[in-house]
Amino acid sequence: MKRKITLKQIARELDVSISTVSKALRNSEEISADTIEKVQAFAKLYNYKPNNIALSLKNRRTKKIGVIIPEIVHHFFSNVIKGIEKVANKHGYNVIVALSNESFDKEVLNMEMLANGSIDGFILSISKETLMLKDYHHFRETINQGMPIVMFDRVVNEINCDKVIVDDFDGAKNAVKIMIDGGSKHIGIITTKDYVSVGSLRTNGYLSALQLSGITASDELVLKVEDGLDTEENSDKLYKTIQSLFDNNPQMDGVFAVNELFALIAMKVAHERGIKIPEQMQVIGFTNGVLSKYATPSLTTVSQHAQQIGEQSAYLLIERLEKDEDLEEDGWKTVIVKTDVVERDSTK
Amino acid sequence: MKRKITLKQIARELDVSISTVSKALRNSEEISADTIEKVQAFAKLYNYKPNNIALSLKNRRTKKIGVIIPEIVHHFFSNVIKGIEKVANKHGYNVIVALSNESFDKEVLNMEMLANGSIDGFILSISKETLMLKDYHHFRETINQGMPIVMFDRVVNEINCDKVIVDDFDGAKNAVKIMIDGGSKHIGIITTKDYVSVGSLRTNGYLSALQLSGITASDELVLKVEDGLDTEENSDKLYKTIQSLFDNNPQMDGVFAVNELFALIAMKVAHERGIKIPEQMQVIGFTNGVLSKYATPSLTTVSQHAQQIGEQSAYLLIERLEKDEDLEEDGWKTVIVKTDVVERDSTK
DNA sequence: GACATGACCGAAAACGTTTTCGTGTTGAAA
DNA sequence: TTTCAACACGAAAACGTTTTCGGTCATGTC
């Protein structure tokens, strides 16, 4: 098995020094035209590419950004990454993705693997388990060692760093308001446990919208889905949980779900029970993915502009990376990206 | 901004040599218990972690696997990655993901970025654009430079490497047979252009099933969707294309779609036209993701055992990586992972 | 007292780059 | 012939590790 060719090999082959080869390849003024041509021809022939590892070691920077996301399958994260890549590539950075699968251990592990030299900075969204455990030591350590972090979507106040978030509260409030305007009186919400920051923010937005319209909230109508139920294995349990929301609230005429999956299942349950959407029940989801568009009926959603979130995150990180090293430490920014409600056929 | 602590700094601080520190940290016999304790305590205090870049350079291996996939959002790829990670982690490897977004240029770019030192080997699924252009030079070059590649799902005969594929032909054949057994006489297929290998294999399976049952195939019933229509921006065009399949074939009573999205849209179109599923039309998709399960009605699919595909790919790659370098070159393996039909409510 | 034996530690090379500084060889000016 | 710049190139250090090969002691043995 052949190895990649190195400067040293080229040098030996052409009977010049390593330095000469290096300079020739970068068209240095110091090297004669003859030598430059000779070296470049040889390098091209053997398809020489500088070894990135050696370069990283020498420059103490990799020009790579590490992205850690909880789940790869959500359309939201996919678009965030698209946004990150767009900005990163424009600035000469590459993007590397690792997954936490919503697990604390994997998050820590993957961060350690990348932090020790593989990348220059992180863009990440915190896993559910981490949020539940409230153990943020790995973020602190990473930052302490001089590696910047930008958090998006699922952020946490306890850590000082740049952040990009969505106006979850207002987004939820607007969505619920639309349902109220459409005539819904008994609106249920399918959300996550409160430790997921965006979940609780959206829940509060929901409550606020109800209050503004003089509707008294009912605990019965609030379903906080336990963690781990949104995996393939536990899908039946999730299904039953949502069915019970319908069982407990026969008068329910609207559902606000904090993600696409929850909304889809709610529509499926409604369909099974002969509840007509949107006539007898309106449904709105959060996150504007493909599922919403192709659901039957198509789902009204709160769109998050995921790509924009990615772009903003990349900007913040690169700005910090390119800034003069030991300048002022603080001045962490938090960028808020607005949401829009995309109305489709699941609302009136 | 603090930098990560290095062996050299520890050595200076403790007034010993770098070698001593290195050995002490690895509990070498050569070092006295006193020194070991002193060094380890200091290292722990300052949270010393060896610099992976330096290690990679020295060892000429990174213990990292690079995965390149066309699209992050498909449940299929998500599960493949899960499988890869499972096996990789068990063998002490880490996994790094990069996206091609179905683009040839990004595929080449990302491979180059990872190939030059960042990883030990690739596991990848070829982008549609690459398949269309039939330009495989980047795969050849990578392999020539001694970096092994394992291809999965979308593979290509022109390249010699280990491969993991699905029995697309048989899977499609079985699926169509189920619809025929269920009474469908005019079965349409929504597939991709032929250069996507799995697309054409599935098309052939469909044709074979028809032939076996004495049904003559009709060109009208075969819809080969153009590339690029399955992105968010072009979703309307895709929609219209599928509508035209219905328009051209009013007698159609069955649809076989080569992916989840196509199947979902077909169901949506059927629903709009008042066609009852499965009574008046049966639908089967390929790939068993969440969408199928939660569609209304739930979708019968050909399940691909994505995780198993990932595991097999990782096994093949690691086996090759750990093998004695300059042993026999060839003997490329192709592993076939079987499919199963998961029957749900969209078939009788 | 000479010598071997361990115990403990350090110097240096190597991985592949880039870059700074130095050095030798020209040809021309003095 | 000497001197000096310009030109073309090489040596070496540095990035952070691991590992091989010695080296320096003190101790024990005869």
From TrEMBL, chains A, B:
<protein>
    <submittedName>
        <fullName>LacI family transcriptional regulator</fullName>
    </submittedName>
</protein>
<dbReference type="Pfam" id="PF13377">
    <property type="entry name" value="Peripla_BP_3"/>
</dbReference>
<dbReference type="InterPro" id="IPR028082">
    <property type="entry name" value="Peripla_BP_I"/>
</dbReference>
<feature type="domain" description="HTH lacI-type">
    <location>
        <begin position="5"/>
        <end position="59"/>
    </location>
</feature>
<dbReference type="InterPro" id="IPR046335">
    <property type="entry name" value="LacI/GalR-like_sensor"/>
</dbReference>
<feature type="domain" description="HTH cro/C1-type">
    <location>
        <begin position="2"/>
        <end position="53"/>
    </location>
</feature>
<dbReference type="GO" id="GO:0000976">
    <property type="term" value="F:transcription cis-regulatory region binding"/>
</dbReference>
<dbReference type="GO" id="GO:0003700">
    <property type="term" value="F:DNA-binding transcription factor activity"/>
</dbReference>
<keyword id="KW-0804">Transcription</keyword>
<dbReference type="InterPro" id="IPR001387">
    <property type="entry name" value="Cro/C1-type_HTH"/>
</dbReference>
<keyword id="KW-0805">Transcription regulation</keyword>
<dbReference type="InterPro" id="IPR000843">
    <property type="entry name" value="HTH_LacI"/>
</dbReference>
<keyword id="KW-0238">DNA-binding</keyword>
<dbReference type="InterPro" id="IPR010982">
    <property type="entry name" value="Lambda_DNA-bd_dom_sf"/>
</dbReference>
<dbReference type="Pfam" id="PF00356">
    <property type="entry name" value="LacI"/>
</dbReference>
